[in-house]
């Protein structure tokens, strides 16, 4: 990856972004009791159950309280603190040690300022029919407010640029919000070059946190997947028409009414799940520096392996110092 810090270089980098920007409809919000200035944990442990993503076996995940100032993920007698140095670039997911597909619970933790311990029966998290809703339900009326947390941000803008894709991190303008500006690039019209700009808040996440994992396929493959889904799903992978949003270049096969904007008719579920995926790495930063990250993140073609790269980079104060950037609070 290449590091850019010049404002002119960063401006050139984003010059070809889609000028048409999507904004989440006002109704895409749900009231919560979360105060973003505080951290939280679980009062009482709870379990969620589903088919493990890679093992395709019925599995349970136990979510437990922690007050140690560090979250952890455990499987097969091994426990990993949520530190980027333990990340592994596995099969299109964020893997922590031997624990796989942690990006979805990380997004929930980021939205709620949550510290928790996760214990898995299988090595990979399940792919749930409603993504993070199982955690939202399990934590409903089950949160304990911890200490007030400081706001953290970067001292100056910088961008990490890969062969394809980039992530730009900028300081917060008002010292309060996390702003996301994300663009994708797919063939056809269902998604295409969609770009979304939104604040990342507990209220918005509580609405769209159940957006499903997406499966974009060419039309012929998508039709085959759809027929497989109608027949009950794949035998060796927990794919169904309930836990995956299936689409091709010009068709969504299994839309959910909740995500359709009544004014424009646009289906936001794909982009909402993109938000879940792209923000998850910031939870590493928050746990490293013990605070709430505020600022702006601008991304393009920002996959899970790139997120592991930037999580490691930003969580390393020495690397940041080399380019003259600090984490400020």
From TrEMBL:
GO molecular function terms noted in the UniProt entry: acyltransferase activity; UDP-3-O-acyl-N-acetylglucosamine deacetylase activity
Q: Which domain of life is it from?
A: Bacteria
Report keywords, A-Z: Acyltransferase, Transferase
InterPro entries the record matches:
UDP-acyl_GlcNac_deAcase, UDP-acyl_GlcNac_deAcase_C
List the GO terms this entry assigns under cellular component, sorted alphabetically.
membrane
Q: Which GO terms describe its biological process?
A: lipid A biosynthetic process
What task does this protein carry out?
Catalyzes the hydrolysis of UDP-3-O-myristoyl-N-acetylglucosamine to form UDP-3-O-myristoylglucosamine and acetate, the committed step in lipid A biosynthesis.
The protein's name is UDP-3-O-(3-hydroxymyristoyl)glucosamine N-acyltransferase
Q: What high-level taxonomic lineage is stated for the organism?
A: Bacteria, Pseudomonadati, Spirochaetota, Spirochaetia, Leptospirales
